[in-house]
Amino acid sequence: MSAGLKGIRLAVVGGDDRELYLIPELQKQGAYIVGVGYEKAPPLPGVTLISSLLEAVNEVDVLLFPMFGTDERGNVKGKYADLPIILNKDVIQAIPTRVPLFIGWAWPALKSIAEMKGIRIVETALLNEVAILNSIPSAEGVIQMAMELTLITIHGSQCMVLGLGRTGWTIAHMLKGIGANVTGVARKAPDLARAVEMGLKAVHFSELEEEIGSAEIIFNTVPYPILDRVILEKVARDAVIIDLASIPGGTDFEYAQMLGIKAKLAPGLPGIVAPKTTGKILAQVYPQLILRQLTTINTSIDS
Ligand code: NAP
Fold first, then answer.
1. pLDDT tens for residues 100-122?
2. What is the mean pLDDT of the chain?
3. What domain count does the chain have?
4. 153: CA distance to ligand 1 center in Å?
5. Is 213 found in the same domain as 177?
6. Could you tell me if 40 and 84 lie in one domain?
7. Are 243 and 157 contained in the same domain?
């Protein structure tokens, strides 16, 4: 493995088991790691532990926050943290402008404070190279959930995938691979054409109300309230809905429950079902992103 990160000081802030696999991979590439929120973690050889995020921002060249970002108040999930980790205005004010911040996704308020202060934020979950690779553990995880939540085999079942984006395609592809009858629902003509080419039944969202009644398992990837009352009324009562879209999902869960339809929100699957693979995916992608950002920042400082 290359030592492309030699001499670069990275703060890994919060996270879950993914980071336990990410950290040694980054170390192999020469990075010096400061861990923020790892007081309760298993031993991490060579990692300097700092509890205060405010203190850490001045000790490093790059800040790496988790894929799931923060909550509205800036709380960063830290599975192994003793104390709360909060990414707020005070922290942003303290970050030197030479230090880029990588995070799965950021709230608009955070982005605008960072922009005013001249801090570069890279939202990694939105990047194709991350999202497409991450869709593999997500799809495996959601199919595992479908197996657990239903009394039928996936093989031969009527599956419907709502949204044919980076995650939807991978789910559809895997479902086909294990013998499901898959309907892909999208709103763009090229996506519907590709669905036909893949051997899916292609349905436009405008026809969802008429089509959804035949689905036994519904996978939603659309981060918009797509499974509303009108659509849910048409869903078979013994169907299962698994919603992967970012919280709060695209399903009216309360109404689904009233109708007696099993509906589950399934956030953060990659970190739950395959933290090792996902940590390694991040370790593959981060070095290039980090080096690109540091080069851009150094060039703008020099000029
Ligand atoms: P993506 O590539 O942007 O795909 C989203 C899909 O939703 C696109 O096909 C898009 O269609 C469609 N869409 C968006 N708004 C729509 C609307 N109003 N009506 C109809 N279709 C709409 O995103 P992704 O990477 O696949 O991720 C999808 C969601 O899953 C995100 O919320 C992401 O955070 C989440 N996710 C969750 C997990 C997990 O573990 N639960 C893992 C990965 C991703 P157009 O192209 O026509 O806009």
1. 999 999 999 999 999 999 999 99
2. 96
3. 2
4. 26
5. yes
6. yes
7. yes
